[in-house]
């Protein structure tokens, strides 16, 4: 057995973005040996890892060759070459999350079918092959049409009010998902290690930027009843257990105006809805992911202080080498913790960083978050 | 003016050990461009910086050449080539802490004289040239003899009970310092930026390993009266202001059984007595050092939760490639945060890592710290 903490045990991450970067910042506390594969020479992870490999994580040979000298392979982005991960798994490498889990999650159709099969509440849906199928679809409008693969952060998603708005529709295999009369959106992050230990983070509440369809604010804890919290946690734990997944799973849910909880989608890795855990919770989601994939004891997830996370998105109208305005203003705010991802170029709504604000009360954190939001800009 | 947060502004650190490593872990949140100079190819900083240069930080040319393309040079170890830093400062580089401050601090004689000159309480002392001076020295025994330069972590320090124990004495320029009847040892870390903003961390209490003469435990906050706290803080702030220093200054003090506070020594950089601030305080000492040297607003230093820091020293009797025992036990303890420094080789009492334990009460943190201490070992 190779010693994990002496750098003999070699770990690889597919993807070198901000999630990988924050994972690496923590990984250094455990003296882990980590290699990173990313297509961009300027990836945020480039200066924090033991070895950086520039290459395409969607290409079989690139992923296979990257993984074959490693002991464990993980991801920070799920749209990777699963065939290569399956080959590596067959050869005895540890691959977490498991390729079988990625197969379910990568395809929005199989993800929805998984929920249906395991009686996990999700909004009604139908699978369609192309645009022509929409008119005959047995579903109440309005719907969201979601491409089966490659959709994230609002890409590959289209809102269809009724059957007269089909000209906007994608002409490709997709899921039609009944729109939910939304009270709020929640996320519960769960972790599971190979021993089967499971722990969840207290649910958080997400507020979206309607134009970018990306998380603008995150509130921890979520403003929900104890019953809703209990139900949300139970759903998240059920999914990770039914999938027998090893690693971190972020479960995004809709809370409808009627009080129903419906799973929207899941991500098998550290997630935007867990950034606040770095300063706000006893164990961060990044440390928890490492604990889970390395089969170490799962950490305590208790909230230390309420927190608000503000996503720092590239300003509209700017493209090019990133310039950060208002950092000093943010540094004057007690309890505000700034995280710049180090992406070389900005573009409208690109995730360039985040700020977590911790405070004795959520109200105070929210007030400070407003100040952060108005002070901090990424331009070019 | 170069943009600090866009990686245009280039920073260098002399020294690539654990203090530099923890500084870099935080620096990545600010997207800073940092180069590191260290004599060891295996230095803990090697995989976290933008550029790693292997070289001797005590050599004029090495330091000068390292610094000449940078905008700002700082240190994580004060025993560096000051002449080179002075040359760089003359050429317009920012050097923080300033070379003039390093001159005072590097020499234990000028450090003591500085305290005397500015009426900062410190134990009585005399300066001597060699062993023969000791018999005539106008000082009450017992004393600590400290070599003027190159002493740290108990190296270069000798305890002399009386004038009959002179055979143990160093035959070199040194300070004879009257021994203090010790109640406890305290540390106050202060930060000052170029605008002159000053902030202090709440005092911590250090418990030493008598054999290694190194910090074994750190308690935050210190168990002292509000009056003693006020006095300790005032002393630390006075020193940083009198030195007009920019950066972080750790002020180690003796609290005598009579209740006197006496400055022992200072370190112009992040310090072992501030490790707990990563998890225990609103701003960590590492972030504070960055804020200070970059002339950014000085951060809030409030204690979030009481904490205990346990130094992880190499076990006696082991030398060679480090192996960490008991990590899993520590990971089961709520609130315990492990930091392995990633040093390749262990040796007796070498600082190999630390664990900070935060808890709602210091008593609880102390109980958990005992468990950590007995579980975690570095062997070879």
From TrEMBL, chains A, B:
Q: How does it assemble?
A: Homodimer.
Q: Where would I find the ATP-grasp domain in this sequence?
A: 112-294
SUPFAM superfamilies given for it? Glutathione synthetase ATP-binding domain-like, PreATP-grasp domain, Rudiment single hybrid motif
Q: Which reaction does it catalyse?
A: 5-amino-1-(5-phospho-beta-D-ribosyl)imidazole + hydrogencarbonate + ATP = 5-carboxyamino-1-(5-phospho-D-ribosyl)imidazole + ADP + phosphate + 2 H(+)
**Name of protein:** N5-carboxyaminoimidazole ribonucleotide synthase
Q: Annotated pathway, please?
A: Purine metabolism; IMP biosynthesis via de novo pathway; 5-amino-1-(5-phospho-D-ribosyl)imidazole-4-carboxylate from 5-amino-1-(5-phospho-D-ribosyl)imidazole (N5-CAIR route): step 1/2
Which enzyme class, named as a word? Answer: ligase
Q: Which Gene3D superfamilies match?
A: 3.40.50.20, ATP-grasp fold, A domain, ATP-grasp fold, B domain
Positions annotated to bind ATP: 108, 146, 177-180, 185, 264-265
Its biological purpose is as follows: Catalyzes the ATP-dependent conversion of 5-aminoimidazole ribonucleotide (AIR) and HCO(3)(-) to N5-carboxyaminoimidazole ribonucleotide (N5-CAIR).
Q: Does the keyword Nuclease apply?
A: no
Q: What is its EC number?
A: 6.3.4.18
Of which family is this protein a member? Belongs to the PurK/PurT family.
Q: What keywords are assigned to this protein? A: ATP-binding, Ligase, Nucleotide-binding, Purine biosynthesis
